[in-house]
Specification:
alpha/beta, 10 helices, binds zinc ion
Length: about 300
């Protein structure tokens, strides 16, 4: 890995993060000049670009120094070959040549990719998957996403939509999902699903997934059971993925994975009962090492593809 300074741009659904990443030859990354901006969900291409350029200029002033390349993560479907943001379901953005716009402004190489695929790549370069060629990266927060690395490369699928882990069906006739299906992991094992399951079990309304995690850590049996059940559903999905892909590891990130310890017992138990053991007995179930700045690591990893 060549040491580089990378302008990292993490465009989310509701926020924008920029920082200058200094990547050392050994893969250690340090960030400076962090800037965070809220993004209005109604923003179109021009507003997003304007906010991103302003944030980047602020980062470059604060970080005081040159850079070699730009890495941009986007929420939604991307074409990494051209750096085009093809589609964002929440804002309706289509065919946005975001890399070209950055190239024109900064005259540097620019790489852009879907945020979850980029997280998987960052985990391989900077995180727990260094040296691992075949793994699935899963983010669990308000939604569930998946990124797949096979043979040491991101596997995007025919239409760029491979590894939609969140839409594996885990509950027959279960909760309605945003995709129109029922019983998807995204409807059954996210933060909102944890809150809903807890409310159904206890009759206590208004508790977030984080509140339930705190209660579980205090030893409350219902809260522990909610996390255990959620872990089982993730384990069911992980086993289906392992049986199909035979990966070396499955890595969990995202806000809900901060409570990975609470999910792990149910997850492992269901995973072990559902896998074809002979083929998958050594699959490693891991927690991300990227932490809450995963998006910035993801952006910083893209010029190394
Ligand atoms: Zn779905």
């Amino acid at each position: 890995m060549h040491p580089k300074r990378i302008l990292a741009v993490d465009i989310g659904g509701s926020k924008l993060l920029t920082a200058l990443a200094s990547v050392a030859a050994g893969g250690h990354v340090s960030f400076s000049g962090r800037v965070r901006r809220e993004l209005d969900r109604r923003f179109g291409k021009a507003e997003i670009l304007d906010a991103a350029f302003r944030a980047c200029d602020e980062t470059l002033r604060a970080a005081d120094g040159g850079f070699d390349a730009v890495g941009i993560t986007i929420p939604g479907l991307a074409d990494p070959e051209t750096g085009t943001w093809i589609y964002a379901p929440f804002s309706g953005i289509r065919d946005f040549p975001v890399a070209e716009e950055f190239r024109r402004r900064y005259a540097k190489p620019v790489a852009a990719e879907n945020d979850v695929n980029a997280c998987a790549w960052a985990e391989r370069l900077f995180g727990v998957c260094r040296g691992i060629d075949d793994f699935l990266w899963v983010t669990v927060s308000n939604g569930i996403g998946g990124g797949l690395v096979l043979g040491g490369k991101i596997f995007a699928g025919h239409f760029g939509c491979a590894a939609e882990f969140g839409h594996l069906k885990v509950v027959e006739g279960g909760a309605l999902c945003g995709c129109g299906g029922r019983g998807c992991l995204e409807a059954e094992a996210t933060g909102p699903a944890i809150a809903r399951r807890y409310a159904q079990m206890t009759g206590k309304e208004g508790f977030s997934a984080r509140d339930v995690a705190l209660a579980a850590r205090r030893g409350e049996a219902d809260a522990r059971e909610v996390y255990r059940k959620t872990g089982e559903l993730l384990g069911k999905g992980a086993a289906a993925a392992a049986n199909l892909l035979n990966p070396e590891a499955i890595v969990f990130g995202g806000g809900v994975a901060e409570s990975f310890d609470l999910l792990l017992e149910g997850l492992r138990e269901k995973f072990n009962s559902d896998i074809m053991t002979f083929a998958n007995k050594n699959v490693r179930i891991l927690k991300t090492k990227l932490g809450y700045e995963a998006g910035l690591f993801a952006a910083a990893s893209l010029p190394y593809r």
